[in-house]
Amino acid sequence: ATEETLVLVKPDGVARGLTGEILARIEAKGYSLVDLRLVEPDRQRLERHYAEHAGKPFYEPLLEFMMSGPSVAIRVAGERVIEGFRSIAGTTDPTTAAPGTIRGDLGRDWGCRSQQNLVHGSDAPESAARELSIWFG
Ligand code: CMP
């Protein structure tokens, strides 16, 4: 069945001018852009979004990074899009993500404590519904 997922172009992707490239890859894969907005999230919104990571060593640096500039939030639709977007995004660590993926082609480590990996994609239907309501209301 057709699904929806939340994609974020994170502050590093926006700051580096990679939003268009990332949108182009989503569209080239055949997924539909349903809604899109530029968001400067406050801490409360990020605490909700990243609730499952509270207390982990990377949590504070992650929130600081996500508050360092605007992100682009995108509602994306398509057949198996949750799995499909995570596939084109590549694995979490941008240094070793496979070439051909967004993170593998465009990402790398910059020596900072937060992992700056350009994009976020929901990992399951329940998290997609939860995250879409956090970013789009
Ligand atoms: P994201 O898909 O947004 O989900 C959790 C985020 O935490 C992840 O991408 C990274 O940006 C960030 N992160 C930082 N360090 C780690 C880590 N060691 N493991 C997983 N995620 C991390």
TrEMBL record:
The keyword Transferase applies. Keywords: ATP-binding, Kinase, Nucleotide metabolism, Nucleotide-binding, Transferase. This is Nucleoside diphosphate kinase. GO terms for molecular function: nucleoside diphosphate kinase activity. Its cofactor is Mg(2+). Belongs to the NDK family. NCBIfam families: PRK00668.1. It catalyses: a 2'-deoxyribonucleoside 5'-diphosphate + ATP = a 2'-deoxyribonucleoside 5'-triphosphate + ADP. The gene is ndk. The active site is at H120. Its EC number is 2.7.4.6. ATP binds at K10, F58, R86, T92, R103, N117. SUPFAM superfamilies: Nucleoside diphosphate kinase, NDK. The lineage of its organism: Bacteria, Bacillati, Actinomycetota, Actinomycetes, Micrococcales. Residues 2-137 form the Nucleoside diphosphate kinase-like domain. It comes from Microbacterium elymi.
